[in-house]
Design goal:
- The chain is α+β, with helices and mostly antiparallel strands.
- The chain is 50% helix and 19% strand.
- The chain has a 7-stranded antiparallel β-sheet, sandwiched between helices.
- Strand 3 and strand 4 form a beta hairpin.
- Helix 2 crosses helix 5.
- The longest helix has 47 residues.
- The protein is globular and about 70 Å long.
- About 10% of the residues have low confidence.
Amino acid sequence: MACKDHPPLEAYLDNELDRSTARTVETHLDTCADCRETLTQLDALRRTLRDGALRYAAPASLRERIAGTVVVAERSAQPRWWNYAAASVIAFGAGGLSVGTWNATHGNASQQLSHDVFASHWRALAATSPVDVVSTDRHTVKPWFAGKVALAPLVQDFADRGFPLAGGRIDYVGDARVPVLVYRHGQHIVDVFVLPNDVSIAPAHEQGYDLETAKLGEQRAVIVSDMDAQEMAKFRDLLSKG
């Protein structure tokens, strides 16, 4: 039977809720299988709509034709000295537009990936358990990933330094299926997303949670948690040194 409470799942998925409201939605998701299923379907739909095959980018030749047309028109209507100035402005503007377009495209891609990671972390917190394989034994967790992802991650346990291993799960960053190592620190859940070599995500902060880049041996990763900056730095150092 469909849920009658109708929590704002779309706004939650798009990270448009304040932290208090988001927590309320997460508490509801903890006990409502219908809403968890709906959230999963919404997330799958969003990923499908972001597929590059659904978009058509205008070819560079079109930009060149438009720029050429403007230059010809300007030259025919203005004195010679103005033609040189107009050509310079158009060239500068086209170059600025190209750089701006590149920055916007790549910047938005990084922001979308960081949002994916935050959303994955929050969904895990809202689930009955944030892990698929529950174990504090790295020799149990590492083999569990074998065959499920392209490259099993380096698994370490830092229980003696206040960051015990809780287990692991499989998640997604963009379209990439990635392993996630789950740690605990006091009341905090700490997710370590192990990234493919061709995926780059910049540090970010959303709703009291931080995303920090890290190294896991030779593997690139990002850490997501609501720990304070000092605890985050300590954990990142433990990961990098092993």
